Each structure stands twice: as C-alpha cells, then as structure tokens.
Amino acid sequence: MRFASLAVTGLLGWMGLTCSSQAPLRDPSKDEQIKFSAAPSTFTHPGVLVSKKQLDFVKAKVSSGAQPWTDAYNKMLSSDLASLTRPAKPRATVECGSYSNPNIGCSDERQDALAAYSMALAWYISGSTRYSQKAISYMNAWAKSIKAHTNSNAPLQSGWAGAPWTRAAEIIRHTDAGWAEADVRAFENMLKNVYLPTVIKGSQSNGNWELVMLEAALGIAIFLEDKTSYDTAMGKFMGRVPAYIYLTSDGSCPKAAPGSGLSGCSKIESYWQDQNTFPENGIAQETCRDFTHTGYGLSSISHIAETSRTQGTDLWTRDVGTRLRYALGFHSRYELGTARPPWLCPKQGKLDLGLGPVTEVGYNALSFRLGNSMENTKTLTEKGRPQGTNNLFVGWETLTHAEQPN
C-alpha cells in the first residue's frame, strides 16, 4: 500500500512527521528546469563550492581565533592531507574495480586531489606560499602523468577525484598563487581529456554515482569556462535530483531519472532498494542501501547547489533546495537515534547508519542563510563539528561553510 494521497500527506504534516512545515513544495516544470540549468553569461572565479567572499569570511574568522573555524582549520592542518612533506603519487593509469578491487592508484589519486584542495585552503587563509606551492605540485604531477581511468568504477573514481581537483585549481588559479601559465594549460588538458569525457555522460547506476560525476563535470566546466558542458551537466542534475529525493507531491512512487528506462512503480521501487511505501518527504533512493552512500549523494547535491548560487542561479530556493532540506532532516533524525518505523526499509529490517560529514553546506544554506527550521539537521551538524573529510571528495566544510553568510 502506498501513502501519497493528499489526506495522508496533510495528516502527516499535522502530526509533525515531515522534516519542516516551512516553504511550499515545488515540482518544477520542464521549462523551469531548463531555465535554472543555463550557464552564466560570465563565470565567477574562484567559483567551485567556495567563492572569494566566502574565503575572505573564513580567513577573517581564523585570523581572529573565532570558533568553530579555528578548530576546523587546525584539524585540517593536523591531517596528513596538509603535510608539506607528503609526496604526490601520480600514475598514468588508475584502475578501480568494484569495492576497491583492484585499487591501483585509486586511493592515491583521491587523496592527492583532497590534499591539493586542503593546501589551497591553507594558502588562502594563511597567505603562506609553502601551501600554494604544495597544492601546485600535486596538480602539476598528475597533469603530467594521468592518461586514463579503467575498470568498472572508473566513472565513479573520475567524479570522486575530479570534484576536489577543480576546487583546488579554482582557488590557486584565481588568487595570484604563482601557478605558471604552462602548468595551468597542462591541467586544463588533463581535465578536458581524461576526466570530462567520462563524467559528462552521467550514469544510471545508483544515484550517488551520477551526482558526483556531475559535480565534477560542473567544476571542470567552470574552470574551462565551457558553457556547453555546464549546461549539459546542470541539465542532467536537474533531472537526477527529483529521482534521488522523494517528495509526497511526486505521487505514489518516486520519479525516474531521464534516460533510466524505469517505467512503472514496481521497477522504480526495486531501484529504490525495494522501498515500496512513501509516506514522508525526504526518503532517498539509497536510504535503504545505507546512509553512507546516501550521504555521498546529498553532499554532491549541496555542492552543486552552492556552486550554482555562486555562478548566479540560486537553486536553494527552488525544488532542489526543498528536496535537500527534507532529505537532510529525514536522515538526521535517524542518525540521532529515532527508531526505524516498520514501513521504512522493511526488506532490510534495519537502517545502516553513518551519514558522514556531509550536512554543513546544506544546513548553512537552508537554515542559517534562508531561515528554515531544521532542528535535527542542526543538532547533527553541530554534534559533528568540526567536520573533516570522508577521504573521497568531501573535506573541511565546517571551515568553509559554518555560519557562512556569503
């Protein structure tokens, strides 16, 4: 039995079972999706996840010793990713199989990309060229080496590494860090020839794959000032988000992603890990798989929405923001100890928790900036501060986005 009628939806809202009663639910039309996926007339740099105004805010907070930014900064500097003696480990072919079997250069590439991003943040906040030169050394080493990603997880790996590479590159290139123009061109060629052809295609695997691939594609498009790729990535993203996070206004079962080939509720429910009742807003396509993979997907959604805002289109106040607000609240509730109701993940009979350090960007945008009440998300976010890294593509978001007004 499915619970998507207006009567049930209204009852659930009256009982307080939805994550928030604020802001009407939005179901964007195709025209609206097209409108909100267009590239800006002029790109903003740095403009992937963090903007110059945001970086200036963080720098001022750390300089004054304010919390939680100072603790977050020190946590980053004390990590192996911020070691000035840590060597880059580039290779020509990175081979990544399912469940990291084989793992030939996969962890090395991801860690080097996150290390470059960590060094870029440290450079901007501290002003020390030791950090900028270290970030540049990582990017130059890989730009001179990598030719391909292979094996079954190659698309996912390309997204996981591609996303932090572009964050780092945007900061270093556009803050007078001393990156030689020839090296910038080599890095552009790496992104254009090794990463973009894979990530721009998207994926019909579990939704977190396509979301992080599109996150990487969007970052690459901004770094290259490639409006065509920007539009392609955003168009796919606008179709994927409604197919990843459910709202009761969607109907009796979730939406299918464009090109998925899923028709009818039974096929969609199978794709949603056999979840077959949908009485609440915020259930995600991978909720019943585990919260960790769900966290990956929610993180990429938040990263893309924040990047889009910097580039001139605010998705936080549209359908994307509404869906993410409910999803963060829904999953935070169970992370904090609420018992699983019988209708949720009945096949699994349990919830596999572990959302990860992924709530800060969404919570800041939707609650701190926009004023939505998100008490469960607030509690979980503050409990996890200073949020660190998931060692894949997420890093240091208490530092960059806690109480971020810009």
Molecular structure report:
The chain is built from 16 helices and 5 strands. It is mainly alpha-helical and 406 residues long. The strands form 2 sheets. It has a 3-stranded mixed β-sheet with strand order 4-3-5, covered by helices on one side. Strands 1-2 form a two-stranded antiparallel sheet. Helix 7 runs parallel beside helix 9 (207-224) and helix 13 (319-335) packs across helix 15. The radius of gyration is 20 Å and the shape is globular.
Keyword list:
single chain, 406 residues, mainly alpha, two-stranded antiparallel ribbon, 16 helices, 5 strands
Structural class comes to: mainly alpha
Q: What assembly state would you assign to the polypeptide chains in this entry? A: single chain
Radius of gyration: 20 Å
Q: What is the terminal-to-terminal distance?
A: 45 Å
The SSE string, one letter per element, is HHEEHHEEHHEHHHHHHHHHH
For the largest beta-sheet, the strand count, sense and barrel status come to: 3 strands, mixed
State the helix count: 16
Count of distinct strands: 5
User: If you average the pLDDT, what whole number results?
Assistant: 92
Q: What percentage of the residues does DSSP assign to strands (E)?
A: under 5%
Question: How would you sum up the global shape?
Answer: globular
Order the strands across the largest sheet as they lie in space: 4-3-5
Bin the helical content: 40-55%
Report low-confidence residues grouped into runs of 5 or more.
Answer: 1-29
